[in-house]
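Quick one:
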Amino acid sequence: MYRLPAAVAVVPLLLFGCQRPAPEAAEGESEMAAEAAMPAEGTPEWSIQNAMSAGPSVITASAAVMAWGDSVGAPMTQLRAGTNGWTCMPDLPLTPVNDPMCLDSVFARLVDAWSRQAPFETDKAGVGYMLQGGADASNDDPSIMAPAPGEEWNTEPPHTMLVPADPPTLAGLPTTPGNGAWVMWSGSPYAHLMVPVE
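Output:
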């Protein structure tokens, strides 16, 4: 944050300090104004804003934003070009929660491979952010895209995701959510560490 020199900072106080303060907005007016300023849900502008809420602003500000296809595994549409090698996606319509994500190039390859149930390998670590939280149909089986009738989605707190350069290093780590970090889709090509940030 930039700070004005003290001598400069006091000038506005001397010039305007005697003016009457502006009347406060009526209760609820500021909330209504904020809602009016929000893009309409489902528009490209809303999708970009939603996608950017997935990760730290230092990353999301320069990340590419891609919209999901009409179905899992369908081609995505670019909503905004990026310059830092990261890709953010808005809420996945398939799930019942708001779950945008922001991924580096390695983790983006993992998500693309998972969505198509295609092979995935890496010799380089990857990172992803889901700072709004998420939901999955199965913590154990990456081929399950929706819960069976009568079963519920597994909801996840805000978290980061890590795929190691050497996947066998995940062996022996917890595979059950609820007590700190855990491995999702353990034993599959898409196994990765989930690290809650709450």
